[in-house]
Amino acid sequence: MARKKKWRVRLLAKDRLVLEQMTRKGRVAAREMTRARALLLLDEGRKGPGKSVEEVGEATGLSERALLRLRKECCETAPLVAVRHKTPVHTKPRKLDGDGEARLVALACSKAPEGHSQWSLRLLAEKLVELDIVDEIAHETVRRILKKTNSNPI
Question: How many C-beta atoms lie closer than 10 Å to residue 71's C-beta?
Fold first, then answer.
């Protein structure tokens, strides 16, 4: 039993013309050209029902999930926005800024706490929290920060 389509692509004549021009020109990014071809194949406007997601996937090499996202974005925004859209890069805010990193390096270069011959990554992470430099930090984050610096405690 076929599922009912939630997002139907119906291109306006001007959008269809622009997308067709994009697929003919050689000066468009390959990703944009592929997505433009996919939208033209999914279009239910001029030539009756568009091709199925599976057929378009075989023709363009895009996955079913990518095509469903493209179809949804085309309906929510505009076809040209959907073609040019890039996946957002999700980045977390940095745990330590430049000042915090400097304090970490200074701490790592200082004398180890009593009962320890040298600083461990976990000890450094605990000390940063204890000194209220950060609320919480993983020892792996401490390792990455120290690896970036050219500090040598010896």
Answer: 22
Closest CA to 145 of 105, 113, 116, 115: 105
C-alpha–C-alpha distance, residues 12 and 46, integer Å: 9
Sequence-ordered list of residues with C-beta below 8 angstroms from that of 76, at least 6 positions apart, any chain? none
Q: Is residue 78 helix, strand or coil?
A: coil
Total residue length of the chain: 154
Q: Each residue's pLDDT tens digit in the chain (154 positions)?
A: 455 667 888 888 899 899 998 888 778 888 889 999 999 988 887 666 778 888 989 999 999 999 998 988 888 888 888 888 776 666 778 889 889 999 999 999 999 999 999 999 999 999 999 999 999 999 999 999 999 887 665 5
For the whole prediction, is pTM greater than 0.70?
no
d(CA 122, CA 45): 61
Cα(129)–Cα(9) distance, integer angstroms: 52
Q: How far is 142 from 139, CA to CA, in rounded Å? A: 5
Strands in the chain per DSSP E = none
